[in-house]
Structure of Oxidoreductase:
Amino acid sequence: MKYAVITGTSKGLGASIAKLLMEASVHVIGLARGTNQKLENANLPGSYQHYQVDLSDIEQTERTFREIISFLEDQPLDSLQLVQNAALVSPIEQAGKQSAKELTSHVHVNLLTPMVVTNLWLDLLRDLDIPLVLVNITSGAANRSVYGWNAYGSTKAGLDRYTDTVALEQDKLKTGNKVFLFDPSIMDTDMQGQIRSADPSQFVDVEQFKNYKKEDKLRSTEVVAKVLVDRLLDEKSIKNGDYFSVKDILK
Ligand SMILES: NC(=O)c1ccc[n+]([C@@H]2O[C@H](COP(=O)([O-])OP(=O)(O)OC[C@H]3O[C@@H](n4cnc5c(N)ncnc54)[C@H](OP(=O)(O)O)[C@@H]3O)[C@@H](O)[C@H]2O)c1
């Protein structure tokens, strides 16, 4: 059976990736603080199992992933994919006006948790006789500085470097595992709503992002998720160390 573990499935891109994989008979394990009744009640070829967890809490996250991995070890696995999608954009604010608490949560969810989970995943699943597929969701913000997004740009840039380095290690170790990045570009989600609600003193480009919404420039998560899921369902097409953007496929 095919299994996928996806973080951030209560809404947005993560929920759409989960649904499309379930339509393709993949058994999905989703994580978020909230739940997703639609996925839990969906009548699709693949099943859905949800873990409510705060991914900013490293101990809770490690405990939950140990539980998930021990469940998976008892399953007949034909393929196993991990999609690290959960992230937050806040605090949107110039440096000098943020709280340490907000910054800590931000760095945990966007960067430290994906590192801790990757480490655990590669360690505990080392002896599996199938190659692992692991995709981290990045953002164009990793590659450009945006006023007010100092935390978000930094954690996404860190995630890019981390993912690329792990891919290099897996290559040298000849594990056959495939680790790559996916950039979904701008999508119509709660995260964009939060961006639009920022004060111009916190985020100088706020008008531009309000216009993206007005001018219908934000892609739906279903459309973006399909691009990633098409690739996930064709494992041979995945290149270890790849950086893959929705814009490579949808112009
Ligand atoms: N939207 C865009 O335009 C855009 C652009 C480029 C990249 N991205 C990236 O795409 C990915 C998905 O973004 P999205 O727009 O779908 O975001 P979203 O609608 O805000 O959803 C974020 C998901 O992450 C989960 N999450 C956040 N904090 C969490 C925590 N502490 N513990 C557990 N789960 C947590 C949320 O669940 P709960 O709140 O229920 O916990 C939710 O399921 C992110 O990596 C984002 O950086 C988005």
Remarks:
- The radius of gyration is 18 Å.
- The chain has one domain: 2-188+220-249.
- The domain at 2-188+220-249 is CATH 3.40.50.720 (Rossmann fold).
- Residues 8-14, 32-34, 53-56, 85-88, 109, 137, 139, 184, 186-187, 189-192 surround NAP (CB under 6 Å).
